[in-house]
Amino acid sequence: MSKSRLHIADAMGHIEAGSDEAGRGCLAGPVFAAAVILPKQPSVSLTKMIDDSKRLSSKTRNAVRVIIEQEAVAFGVAWVVVAEIDSVNILNASFMAMHKAIDKLSLMPERLIIDGNRFKPYREIPHKCIVKADAKFMHVAAASVLAKTWRDEYMLQLHEQYPKYGWDTNMGYPTAKHLRALQSFGPTPHHRKTFGPVAQLRLPFP
Fold first, then answer.
1. What pTM did the predictor assign?
2. How sure is the predictor about 12, in pLDDT bands with cuts at 50, 70 and 90?
């Protein structure tokens, strides 16, 4: 599917931000989110390279991240930690992370495009939820890239402390290696204790 050109403003001149999250399905680590407002005419480099973060290689994502952070009219990245995820559930934690990311925008948008089918309203700003918006709109794709690359960077740092779980490659997702490590070594303080494979261990958390 080809991407739409970014809708920064509609006919009435409304400023529009795209928002997306990363790490919702992980067993470990925070959930991250980003919100991005791009210029009306993004550079040729950004237009050619940007896509849904899941379609890009790690190398390309990191290269695109640099361009987004340089060109964005405004961007914000935020996260919600494991304790909050376990307290409010991952869906609400994802909404919280998006709200925190929007809070960080230096220019407040007048409209929001959210990747997915559900969202908790942010203040009085109108929003529209679109499934796979990160594969359709440049500003949502940009948000997906920032959320993913910032989270990956965070998980790589955690990997240095807990190398047995393979977070340098699985980033906290439930791969076979990650699940085997959970069975062998038990959970870390960064595991989401309410998530099935972790909760089923019935082991005390450090």
1. 0.92
2. low
